[in-house]
Amino acid sequence: MTRRDQPSPEGDPVYASLDARAVALRDALIDRNLLDEQQVAATQALVDKELFPANGARVVARAWVDAAFKDRLLADATAAAKELGIEGIEGHQMVAVENTESTHNVIVCTQCSCTAWPLLGLPPDWYKSPPYRARVVREARTLLAELGLQIPETVAIRVWDTSGETRYLVLPARPAGTEDFSEEQLAALVTRESMIGVSLPKATQSD
Amino acid sequence: MDGAHDLGGKSGFGDVTIAEREPTFHESWEATAWALNVLAIGTLRAYKADTYRHAVERMEPTWYLRARYYERTLTAVATLLVERGLVSLDDLEQRAGGQIPLSQPVAALPVLQKEDTVAAQPRFAAGDAVVVIARSTPGHTRCPAYVRGRRGVVRRVYPLAYYPELRAHSTVKRREHSYAIEFQASELWTGGDPHQSVSVELFESYLDRP
Prior knowledge:
The complex is a heterodimer.
Chain A: H1 18-31, H2 37-44, H3 46-49, H4 53-65, H5 67-75, H6 77-83, E1 94-98, E2 103-108, H7 117-120, H8 125-128, H9 130-135, H10 140-146, E3 156-161, E4 167-171, H11 183-187, H12 192-196
Parallel strand pairs in A: 1-4, 2-3
Chain B: H1 28-42, H2 49-57, H3 61-66, H4 69-83, H5 89-96, E1 117-118, E2 129-132, E3 151-162, H6 164-167, E4 174-184, H7 185-188, E5 196-203, E6 207-208
Helix pairs in contact in B: 1-4, 2-4
């Protein structure tokens, strides 16, 4: 087989499928006793065990009902999350940024796709996609409007580029009409998108 | 490096589409690729997260842009484990029954600092005006191109952390402070939204006083 200098792997039969590449790598590491199957399975299981957006939703809901917790969250989100038993990979330096009447926050990682995994889970496709990474730092208001979120001109938009050690969480405002909601009901309103800043929690959320 | 990965402000990519419901992994190889990278960094200690990011950045640029996200992860893990001799490419390709494309080699790097250092006291404080040094490197950087040479204000001072340009390429441990630097969109973009800012986390070495 000739090696190609400029790989165009899609559909080119000279290249192994992505599945075959991943299996080959895993099996080679296991056969060399560098890893075992149990370690690989246990790591994969972390996405169901500790790295998912319901964690972030719990943190947001707690901040809505407990002003002292909210203060601690805004001072040190890593420590505040840990109070609720939430921690994990990519969570050693987490910062919460609060939406107010005058400021709307939105987060991105323009160079890769860094995210607060313990609070937001592994990031969704759209967050990792070139159009989001390219556009939100340049034309946030236009992009948010395209995504169905109209931010009035009077509200400043602050974009946070995750270009270092810090992993961000947007703390959205508690929606109107939720005065009687329990903390659990409130958490159910908080979507991953609202904790990234491309949508707002709504009192009428169906799920 | 000034690669295709440094996407902030680039034009022509079109719409953002948010899927209603999306699994964390679409196919099982994605979960495998992700887990192998986590284990290679955290358990095998084969490389650092910064080294991983740079291996992704080293993918041929048109391939990088077309590749699925976890294809980039898979490519970076394979590249680094082959480069470090933990697995051989021949063995991988035999197992996979086809070629396994890897990232391009690390470019010739400038002479790296040899001593471990700690810049213990932050040079800047919240509210300070700063300018980003307009500089590029053939190696890894976390200073996005769109802020180089631009003026901003320190909003937050972050704790000491390993300087990624050294961390990605050497065992030298230089720790320094990083900062959330707020740039007005109008400073970054012609016709930028007067009520938009971008806060970028930047290491002290990237910054100067204006």
